[in-house]
Design a protein that fits this description.
The complex is a heterodimer of chains A (438) and B (328). Chain A has 438 residues and is mainly α. Chain A contains 17 helices and no strands. In chain A, helix 3 crosses helix 15, helix 5 packs antiparallel against helix 16 and helix 10 packs across helix 11. The longest helix of chain B has 44 residues. Chain B is an alpha+beta fold and 328 residues long. The chains are: A mainly alpha (438), B alpha+beta (328). The interface between A and B is large, with 46 and 48 residues.
Chain lengths: 438, 328
């Protein structure tokens, strides 16, 4: 029992410090600004964006794709590491689950921001047709939202039970909530077996669901004729890209939480080391698919394909393209190959680079393709030949990113970041091992 | 005591209800009988005459009992039966565009913009300045919606707002469109336009509301009025076809570039000459845009061979950045 006391003291959710309050308030301010911009967009129409009949999708869609990709972190870390019996995952799975929940919720919200008639959202259900990839998305996003939520919730049950007890005297109302959420967790063998079975089912379920989500997201583009999207490579390309975005985001959040909540005893250099290697693996796989996506069409050099790819390699989008490829993929691989590169702080910087690269990567997937249609762009205002997000679009996009961070912040405030029960169990097992050995 | 009280109250309520029911039924019966009586007296007794005007303008007198109410005019009745999503029965509309005749006069575009009250920056009908390669000849190419038989836009629409009819037309229900713009991304011909802001079509909107915005014909009437946050495009002018007229672009063209017709009848006309479609396509080597994509367009092109006019003549009216004239 002593063991639990120390763990609870270390790991029970803590109130925000002054920095936490400032952080939360600034997020709320950003969100309010974004909501104001969105209201204006609804009133005036999407004329407030810089989108046009050629660049008909813009930063809203690429931001949506980014959120969908980031939510893949749940599938990658939780399920894959679980199935491959990688035990080092324990202290970071909860963080991964929290990021996945925040990202998938925001994916659902951002896609509606792009709609010209958000008031007709219900038409998707009233008149929905199965042949449209958007309908597939309408089905898979709520499904993965549920699976992600359950994957966060089921492992939390014993921790909620512990916290209920822990706060019984200190904060009775909070304790009541934890107890309610713990579904009367007592830790009996029956409960444990049900819980383990449920977690196992969900952890397996999230693999096909996650793969489907990423693939459908890719099919939103690859079911269209446009050069740069019309590619059989796109499903796998999106899945591997999602793994990069997800693990990159995980590295950043893990580092911040370790520093803020002083979890050095639980999240150690070993975890960063492993995460670093994992990130290298995902980056290499993604680089492989990038090679397929850009090099092969360049080699066969169909006219439309070369025009499109040259815009990326040497044209208008070249600086961004090379930032994403070098800064977001190649550089991280090189740095993380060295042991020193996998220390927490360098990892954090690399993580930030990877996430920024991943975000812009989605922008590069959406925008350049639209600016090179089959028929030349003629008879429209000159501005329509370019696209860069307007102030409204930036405010709204930043607000969605802030909202994702706010969801993470709130969850971190009330949910133990490192699984308490599981850590205790593992420590016990370790002790037992030592005792039997000696 | 208490028991008794409630019992009696219950009895009273019960009786009251029954009585009420009987009176109600009685009352209904009575009024029915009374109305019948009234009717018979009317028929037998009154010789009320009614003055009516015939279609040629003469006044006649008719016994009022002879006057019966009837449905509205015949045209309205057929309209009610006419299914907008099915289209006109046994028709299949096609267009042929003869590139050899086009000299970028842009009368088609002006007529289209006017008749469809286009207020945005992007016309439904555009005339492209085309030159595939430096070694090949330049030419003018008008484009409308291709009204494909395998329309990519219809496949991807999540709410069935854009649909394909039996008569070949691809139309948009802008009261259903959710504005996701997936159809615009799907269309390889970049033919679709979006209402990024309130279209402000002025009086037309009000007029439409009064005359045409009934439940059945909002889709078809020139796709009007345009609605903010929804997609528009060339509709092949079903409002003129139904009046046995040609689409506005066809009649407006001074050079007879556009031929419109029916594939089943195998005829197309530009208003001056009527031709056999199959023969025309065979003789002049007709083709369709991006046939390789498998969209099966309903618009055919005749290659710009043996041109009547010099390509350069069209350059005068070519505007790279404008397709809709706007009042200053």
């Amino acid at each position: 029992m002593k063991n639990y006391d120390k763990l609870l003291n270390d790991l029970a959710p803590q109130k925000f410090g002054r920095k936490g309050v400032i952080w939360t308030i600034s997020l709320v301010i950003l969100i309010i600004l974004g909501i104001a911009a969105y209201i204006d967009q609804v009133i005036q129409g999407q004329i407030v964006t810089n989108m046009n009949d050629y660049a008909l999708w813009g930063v809203y869609i690429s931001n949506f794709v980014f959120f969908v990709a980031t939510s893949f972190v749940g599938t990658v870390t939780v399920a894959v590491l679980r199935l491959t019996n990688n035990n080092w995952r324990t202290p970071i799975v909860r963080i991964a689950e929290i990021i996945a929940v925040a990202a998938i919720i925001m994916a659902g919200i951002t896609i509606t921001i792009d709609m010209g008639r958000p008031d007709r959202l219900m038409n998707l259900f009233i008149h929905g047709r199965m042949q449209s990839p958007i309908t597939w998305d309408v089905i898979i996003i709520p499904t993965s939202m549920m699976v992600c939520l359950l994957l966060l919730y089921f492992p939390l049950l014993p921790d909620f039970g512990l916290l209920g007890k822990y706060y019984q005297e200190k904060q009775p109302t909070l304790s009541k909530w934890y107890r309610r959420l713990s579904l009367n967790w007592t830790g009996s063998d029956v409960q444990k077996s049900i819980q383990l079975k449920s977690i196992h089912i969900i952890a397996i379920l999230i693999i096909p669901v996650g793969f489907m989500l990423q693939t459908i997201d890719a099919w939103l583009f690859s079911t269209l004729f446009r050069v740069g999207w019309d590619s059989t490579n796109l499903g796998a390309y999106f899945i591997s890209g999602a793994a990069v975005a997800g693990v990159g985001a995980l590295v950043c959040v893990v580092y911040v939480l370790q520093k803020v909540y002083k979890l050095e005893d639980y999240i150690t250099d070993l975890h960063f080391d492993k995460l670093g290697k994992f990130l290298v693996l995902t980056c290499l796989i993604y680089l492989y698919f990038n090679l397929n996506e850009y090099l092969i069409p360049q080699l066969t050099s169909k006219k439309e394909a070369t025009t499109h790819i040259n815009v990326l390699l040497t044209g208008q989008f070249a600086p961004l393209f090379w930032f994403v490829i070098i800064g977001g993929l190649i550089l991280p691989v090189i740095v993380l190959l060295f042991k020193k590169g996998r220390k927490p702080f360098p990892m954090f910087i690399i993580g930030l680079l990877v996430v920024t690269g991943s975000w812009w990567k989605r922008y590069l997937i959406v925008t350049p393709t639209l600016l090179h249609p089959f028929l030349p762009i003629q008879g429209v205002p000159e501005e329509w030949r370019h696209y860069f997000p307007s102030l409204h679009e930036w405010l709204i996009t930043i607000a969605t990113l802030a909202m994702a961070l706010l969801i993470i912040t709130i969850l971190v405030r009330y949910v133990p970041i490192v699984p308490i029960q599981k850590t205790a169990d593992e420590q016990e097992a370790l002790e037992l091992n030592k005792n039997t050995k000696s | 005591m208490e028991n008794n009280k409630t019992n009696s109250r219950r009895k009273f309520l019960d009786k009251g209800l029954k009585m009420g029911l009987v009176t109600a039924i009685g009352a209904i019966g009575l009024t029915k009988i009374a109305s019948k009586l009234n009717a018979t007296t009317d028929e037998a007794g009154s010789h009320d005459k009614m003055q009516l005007m015939t279609t040629d303008g003469t006044l006649i007198e008719v016994d009022s009992s002879e006057v019966e109410e009837m449905g509205h005019s015949e045209k309205k009745q057929t309209e009610a039966e006419y299914n907008l999503r099915e289209g006109m029965p046994n028709r299949k509309f096609v267009m042929v565009i003869d590139l050899a005749k086009c000299k970028n006069a842009l009368k088609c575009q002006a007529a289209c913009n006017k008749q469809h009250y286009i207020t945005g920056d992007h016309a439904w009908l555009k005339v492209y300045k085309m030159q595939e390669d430096t070694d090949t000849a330049p030419y003018w190419m008008p484009t409308t919606c291709m009204h494909c038989d395998h329309p990519a836009c219809v496949t991807v629409c999540p709410v069935d707002a854009t649909f394909k009819r039996r008569d070949g037309l691809v139309l948009i229900d802008n009261e259903r469109c959710i504005g996701c713009r997936f159809c615009m991304a799907a269309c390889p011909y970049s033919t679709r336009v979006f209402n990024w802001k309130e279209p402000n079509q002025g009086e037309i909107t009000m007029l439409m509301d009064m005359e045409h915005q009934t439940e059945t014909n909002s889709v078809e009437f020139a796709g009007l009025p345009s609605v903010k946050g929804t997609v528009d495009k060339c509709d092949f002018c079903p409002h003129t076809i139904r009046d046995n007229q040609l689409p506005h672009c066809v009649t407006a063209c001074p050079n007879g570039v556009f031929y419109f017709g029916d594939r089943y009848e195998d005829t197309v006309t530009n208003g001056e000459e009527t031709l056999r479609l199959s023969k025309l396509l065979k003789d002049k080597a007709g083709y369709r845009l991006m046939e390789g994509l498998g969209t099966k367009p309903s618009v055919f092109y005749l290659p710009p061979a043996d041109r009547l006019v010099d390509f350069k003549d069209g350059l005068e009216s070519f505007t790279d950045y404008k397709s809709v004239d706007k009042p200053e």
